[in-house]
Design brief:
Pfam families: Ank_2. ANK repeats lie at residues 109-141, 182-214. InterPro entries: Ankyrin_rpt, Ankyrin_rpt-contain_sf. Helices cover 52% and strands 0% of the residues. With 246 residues, the chain is an all-alpha fold. Helix 2 (11-23) runs antiparallel to helix 3, helix 10 (186-193) packs parallel to helix 12 and helix 12 (219-226) runs antiparallel to helix 13 (229-245). The chain is elongated, with a radius of gyration of 21 Å.
Length: 246
């Protein structure tokens, strides 16, 4: 492969490639995969295109066994309204050169692209993947559907983007009562994070307050463990009203 021709005069990428050569003991394919990953992470579309034209694998993986396509989702820019990010991004280029949208991570979780898009709050990518036909109920090896990935990061769970993502997933078929391998539901995780607005939204979308996980804990128990009085009050109120109705 004419790798130096592909990277041209970009000294940073040339140095990156040379370091890969040394680290991988001359494994040309692995070096090219890692250089492609670096080009995508640093938003160098022209270099990404050159590498793919010269035979770089669009279905390669990084050192953590995450598909390069998933990395493109994490680092990719997006325009939610018109999908303009598809026109020149690393994500688009990978698709053009044969990337498999259904590719999963090769780590213990075996996550989908939709899990990644949800985790990083990429609503534009989420819409694209669902339009492509990705199942919002598809679980990873731990039984976690993409909806659960919204709780993997530390940020303001009550912000508009988070609520919009949850609403969109459910509108496209996600089940707010789907359980993971430990019997937890999205409401358990929201209670654990102390997110009142997310809990309110999940309940409006049909999440059950009175269903325990595999250890017998209710969402209310998770809220009590965090000593979040607002969450405790909300869940106690819903449980009380539900009991009175029945």
């Amino acid at each position: 492969m004419a790798i130096r021709g592909a990277v041209g005069n970009n000294s940073v990428l040339v140095n990156r490639y040379c370091k890969c050569i040394a680290a991988e003991q001359g494994d040309e394919k692995r070096c090219v995969d890692l250089t492609l990953l670096y080009a995508i992470e640093t938003s160098k579309a022209a270099v990404t295109r050159c590498l793919l034209e010269n035979g770089a694998d669009p279905n390669g993986f990084n050192d953590e066994n995450t598909p390069i396509l998933h990395c493109a989702i994490r680092y990719g820019e997006e325009s939610v309204g018109n999908f303009s990010y598809l026109q020149s991004s690393g994500f688009d280029l990978l698709l053009r050169y044969g990337a498999d949208l259904d590719i999963q991570s090769k780590d213990s979780k075996q996550e989908s692209a939709l899990h990644v898009a949800v985790r990083w709050g990429k609503l534009g990518f989420i819409r694209f993947l669902l339009r492509y036909g990705m199942d919002p109920r598809s679980a990873d090896s731990e039984g976690r559907p993409p909806l659960f990935a919204i709780f993997d990061r530390s940020f303001d769970y009550d912000n508009h983007n988070c609520l919009e993502i949850i609403s969109h997933l459910v509108s496209r078929g996600a089940d707010p009562n789907q359980q993971d391998n430990e019997g937890r539901r999205a409401l358990h995780l929201a209670a654990q994070k102390g997110s009142r607005k997310v809990m309110e939204l999940l309940i409006r979308l049909g999440a059950a307050c009175d269903q325990p996980d595999a250890t017998g804990k209710l969402p209310l128990d998770y809220a009590r463990e965090t000593n979040d009085h607002a969450s405790i009050g909300l869940l106690e109120s819903y449980i009380s009203s539900h009991t009175l109705e029945h």
